[in-house]
Amino acid sequence: DSRSPAERAASRELRDQVPTHAKSKHGALAAASKHERFADVVKLEQTKQALIQLGYKARAARRALEEACAHVGTDADIPTIVKAVLDADRNGGANRANSGSDEPEQLIKEAIQALVRLGYPKNAAVAAVRGATEQVDGAADLPALIKEALRLCA
């Protein structure tokens, strides 16, 4: 199978969630609806994977993703959803695993990697993270640094 793991997981989740009447091949509406639903599921799976790469456990990432989507809507793009998760986490959530490093250079590397994994070009990610380090205080944690860098990317 040449599909990515996110696409395979999204396909399984879609099969489980699409009502039986929508699975029929009758009518363009059912096909369009299925295609839109698949795109939504793929986006949510990619967002969940981005959160996992940021240090969330899979179950915590899914729960945080569901909570964030309840606030920003499922039609929001991946960076918007990730920002919402980071906002919620910063405002009292404890879902994120400890990054294990307080070294400023390590935090910068991890933030750059996170933005690149979210789809930003590396040079844009580097510029945004470097700019973000000037905006946040020296005691900033990884979510705060990524959040500020995402603001600079937008």
Overall average pLDDT: 76
Proportion in β-strands:
under 5%
Q: How helical, in percent, are the residues?
A: over 70%
Low-confidence stretches: 20-25, 94-102
Given helix and strand content, the structural type is mainly alpha
CA-atom Rg in angstroms = 17 Å
Described by strand count, sense and barrel closure, the largest sheet is: none
End-to-end distance: 35 Å
Count all strands and give the number: 0
Shape: globular
Q: Could you state the order of secondary-structure elements as H and E?
A: HHHHHHHH
- Number of contiguous helices: 8
Walkthrough of the structure:
With 154 residues, the protein is an all-alpha fold. It contains eight helices and no strands. It is globular, with a radius of gyration of 17 Å. The N and C termini lie far apart (35 Å). The model is unreliable at 20-25 and 94-102 (pLDDT under 50).
